[in-house]
Write a structure and sequence with these properties.
Strand order of the largest sheet: 1-2-3-5-7-10
Number of helices: 10
Order of helices and strands: EEHEEHEEHEEHHEHEHHHH
Radius of gyration: 19 Å
Strand content: 15-25%
Largest sheet: 6 strands, mixed
Low-confidence stretches: none
CATH architecture of the largest domain: Alpha-Beta Complex
Bound molecules: ligand LHQ
CATH superfamily of the largest domain: 2-enoyl-CoA Hydratase, Chain A, domain 1
Structural class: alpha/beta
Number of strands: 10
CATH class of the largest domain: Alpha Beta
Helix content: 40-55%
Distance between the termini: 37 Å
Length: 263
């Protein structure tokens, strides 16, 4: 069984690269094979211009339970967890954030450890009402990784980030929405439709503009206002030369729906 299913279904979801974590019996925990599947999917997303949005979800009742704890050799004389982060998790998060295309995440069930933070590395996160987010690291004597210590305080504030990380308490999807950790909590039965609708909308959007919005929002975490104003000027100058801007204005003036091509 492939640990990651990747499909671009032109008929049902044009422009949407669907990425499904597919180890349902282990709640889609990360293994070397699952990482390879994600790395391949990212390469496709980076190189195929037919891909205009990514939709990430999990097969079965869980989203992702983090690192597969059975994959590690606990009898090794020296355990180097930094190596796995350096070669697998960190490149994955960096590629997701650098991808100039939107990534929608549909959290279908529990998201724990690196699985929770992988979800937070996506650009817009929806979760099923029955889903939950767990910073499980502390329970096994570790610290948040996969970007968690960066994402959590920025999304929820220091207090909530600290308590989530220190207690490893389960945060319901509803509270995750209330705390601003995710965009929306929806009824379980609606998660697939809602996330597909959003992905489809983004895939039919002005791709260049969406990529730049992503850069502007993420770069703002490290810029002061003056640097951010400069960045907005540069991005606007660049995107204003594109076909989609002309189409957007023409459609507005002609009182019709724009037909964006991503150019
Ligand atoms: C699992 C896992 C799992 C293997 C469920 N591994 N089998 C760490 C180390 C190294 C380098 C880089 O970074 C990291 C980052 C991390 O991600 S550390 C955090 C790792 N994750 C966890 O500590 C979470 C462990 N899982 C759980 O606490 C529970 O499974 C949760 C709360 C997620 C779900 O609980 P339940 O709904 O009760 O499901 P379950 O526990 O019965 O799990 C179902 C199956 O999945 C079960 O297998 P089995 O063969 O007994 O049916 C679990 O053993 C397996 N599974 N998580 N991470």
């Amino acid at each position: 069984m492939e640990p990651v299913l990747v499909s671009l279904d032109g008929a049902h979801l044009p422009g949407v690269l669907r990425i499904t974590l597919n180890r349902p019996e282990k709640l889609n925990a990360f293994t070397a094979g699952l990482h390879q599947g994600l790395a391949d999917a990212m390469t496709r997303a980076e190189t195929d211009s037919a891909v205009r949005c990514l939709l990430v979800t999990g097969a079965g009742r869980g989203f992702c339970a983090g690192q597969d704890l059975a994959e590690r050799d606990m009898n090794a004389p020296v355990i180097d967890l930094g190596e796995g982060l350096e070669t697998r998790y960190n490149p994955l998060v960096r590629r997701m954030r650098a991808l100039p295309k939107p990534i929608v995440c549909a959290v279908n069930g529990v998201a724990a450890g690196a699985g929770a933070n992988f979800a937070l590395a996506c650009d817009i996160v929806l979760a099923a009402r029955s889903a939950a987010f767990i910073q499980a690291f502390v329970k096994i004597g570790l610290v948040p990784d996969c970007g968690g210590s960066y994402f959590l305080p920025r999304l929820t504030g220091t207090q909530r980030a600290m308590a989530l990380a220190m207690t490893g308490e389960r945060l319901s999807a509803q509270d995750a929405e209330r705390w601003g950790l995710i965009w929306k909590c929806v009824d379980d039965a609606d998660l697939q439709d809602e996330s597909e609708k959003l992905a489809l909308q983004l895939a039919g959007g002005p791709t260049g503009s969406l990529g730049m919005i992503k850069k502007a929002i993420y770069d703002s975490a490290n810029n002061d206002l003056s640097a951010q104003l400069d960045l907005e000027r540069d991005l606007q100058r660049d995107i204003g030369k594109g076909q989609d801007y002309r189409e957007g204005v023409a459609a507005f003036l002609e009182k019709r729906k724009p037909q964006f091509t991503g150019r």
